[in-house]
Amino acid sequence: SEWLVHSLGSIISQPHDESAIPTVSLDELKAEMKELSPGELPEEFSRLLNKNQRALQQQQIWSSDHQMLVKFNYKNSEIPDWDTYHIHPIVLNTTFLLLSASAQRGRRYPFLYRAKSLDRFEFYRKPQKEFYAHIEFSDDSSNSAVLTSTISLLDPDGRTLLRAQNLRLQAVPLSEAIANLLYQVEWHKESISLSSLYDYPTNWLIIGENNGRAALLSGRLEQKKLNVIHLLEGSKSQLNDNGRGTLAFNSDDASSFLDQVLDKEFALVFFADTENGQAVERLNRLIGVLQNVSHKPNHFWLITERAVQLPGDSLPAKPCSAAAWDQGLQIRLSNPEMRFSMIDLDEDVLPVFNYLFLPVNEQIVAVRGEHLYVPRLRRAQLAHQTASLIDPLQALSERRKSPQADEIEIEVQAVGINPIDYQRNTPVLSNGFGYECAGKVVSVGENVTDFKPGDQVLALAKGAFQKYVTTPAQLVIRKPKKLTPEQGAAVPLGYLTAHYALSYLARLSKDETVLILNADTPEGLAAVAVAKGLGARIFATTHRWINAPLLSRMGAENVFKGDTLDFIDQTNQRTDGLGVDVIVNTGKNGHVSASFSVLKEFGRFIELNSFDLFEQPIVYHNLRRNISFFAIDMVQMLEDQQALVQRLFREVGEAVDSGKYELVPVEIAQVNQIPLLLRQLEKHLKINKPVVLLKSK
């Protein structure tokens, strides 16, 4: 597997200087906050205390909008391994739980967080069992998907024990968090030569029913001049001169018997009985016997028959074998010191001898015919439930909100659907569905002078999928007269993002080259339209090759398949090895890191896929050669940069009205088609811009 850079920094060790330890006044801190009695604790804290009574044996909690102080006292707690750690895990875990609980206050939906970055970590001394935790939040943490805080542990005199400065936690969509907890086992065929054998042990103990398979293995091992003892279960432990015998699992002398017949290290093969249902009991008894022998097996093989169901198996798994297999997995977990391997065989398998000595480190395998299969954990693909459960007719509300001084109320006629709309569990979407619309102004706030009731407009608005929506006037422009409402609803978010990326950030100029990854999406087509309007030469990759002709008609002079890395060589060939000036990535793409190789010196890389930004590795050495990297979160800009959005939005409207930016193809849909549209966008099956009409019943 490939190692990826996770973080960069330096460790500095300094001489101990008691006077240099930062100290705060606990009394002053307490005065800045309100002490909370048990009845005053917010619901999030009460729930946390109830679930973590052992961890949270605090005496007092002080809290304000931007900080929190908690006193801990573990003096009367039995924590046996407290002295083993510099900072006990229970302290770190509890601090993070408090941090998360405090961040939930006032939130309608609970968030989960993952660590994003840390500016500095200082450690001064080990906490004793009585200490304080002080958490300070940045001013804008409550309005951002990134929670920024500084955490300090203080002794009773206010001296700092440790401090984590500017710890940033990224809010994780609930659906993504759940998906990261779910894994499934997939069996993969392993390519390996069966003739490649390594040096195997000299002494062997074979235990199993007299079903022919164990006897066959014993004979093959003896042909190799190896020492073999083959035992069946019996009422008495005994061994004949030919190396065959019985083992009484339940007798007290089973361990001493094995010590007598096995005076050296040995390998053990246990054949699980697949017929009478006693394999689990016998396996457990054998493990108990081995606990008391002097010479432990240096390798234990559990052999089952059709215990697992592999793709392509024509027969079902055997229940008794499956039970023994499951017990073997438990034994592996409970006996980590034992080299315990498991092999599942088919009925028509070649002699098991061929598979015991393969030069691989796999300890769980399945054999089918002449092929070897190994299990691999893969993250389970959890489908977005919200898209399939949306009742769009029920979601369409007639609720109205009177505009504030700088706001406009719009009667919505058409709504554009975007990939962001199926990310329903993210904090930015907690206020409704839809982010762009076309409609008619019905009322304006007292400070609004540029618009009046009756004006046809395009707007960016949270929760645009309503019959009436209210939004800041800075996020509204007049609809170009030549556009229909459905055409207009296809413009705001996609074109604003592409215009900001290519014109404002990348400063793309005429005759420069741009490579648009995943261009056969509505967002990709908008980027193609903007790049063409700026006079650039356009290269594009596609999810589906059937979309290549449309990309060519819209201005992409070179279109490549995006499912392999061939587009890198093809781009270099078409640019005479120079590469491109700008790369734009519009969606989740496993080739992002590799695509840096076609970026020129002083090139610009634009990432539009904000939701999967932290899932895609951008190796730091890719940013050499004076390359610039920009990651765009347009939804966050709508919150924090409305003046800039207003200027860009007006520029987009003028470019569309003049024909400089060509319109993307629009697909008009009805309200009841929204769940299908969301699934198609999520699976990259939609290239036309979907727009839902609301103006007709």
Automatic annotation (TrEMBL):
Keywords: Transferase. It holds the Pfam family PS-DH. Residues 1-178 form the PKS/mFAS DH domain. Residues 33-178 are annotated as: C-terminal hotdog fold. One of its GO terms (molecular function) is transferase activity. This is PKS/mFAS DH domain-containing protein. SUPFAM superfamilies: GroES-like (SSF50129), NAD(P)-binding Rossmann-fold domains (SSF51735). Residues 1-18 are annotated as: N-terminal hotdog fold. It comes from Caldithrix abyssi.
